[in-house]
Amino acid sequence: MFEHMSLFPLTLEESLDDEGHDRYDVYVNDDFVGIKSLMATNDRIDDLNEFLQEEGFQHFNTEASGGHFHIQSENEANVDSMKDVLHVYLQSR
Question: 3-state DSSP call for residue 18?
């Protein structure tokens, strides 16, 4: 199962999108995969954890720091698939 590391709230102006929403640059094993903007008041960056679990991914760690959300997968065989799934998900939001 995934391990949840501490999440830090965003307060930096550069962590906002053009419409003033909080945003995160998302990385998988240090590779950029897209941007997650928190559009609604109930949106959370750790929604990505739940999404990945629903897609069948396990054994990953996450950390939010400033405007960055890092996902470290312990399963190298699934990294490319995880990147592809997240890229599509982030493009559709």
Answer: coil
Contacts of 78 (CB under 8 A, 6+ apart): 57
Span 1-30, pLDDT tens digits: 444 444 444 444 445 545 445 889 999 999
Residue 67 · residue 15 · CB < 8 Å: yes
Q: At which residue do the structure tokens 């550069």 appear? A: 14
User: Could you tell me the strand order of the sheet in which 60-65 lies?
Assistant: 3-7, 60-65, 68-73, 22-28, 31-38
Which band of pLDDT confidence, cut at 50, 70 and 90, is reported for residue 73? very high
Which bin fits 50, alpha (ψ -120 to 50), beta or left (φ > 0)?
Answer: alpha
Confidence at residue 41, expressed as pLDDT on a 0 to 100 scale: 82
* Distance separating alpha carbons of residues 84 and 90, to the nearest angstrom: 10
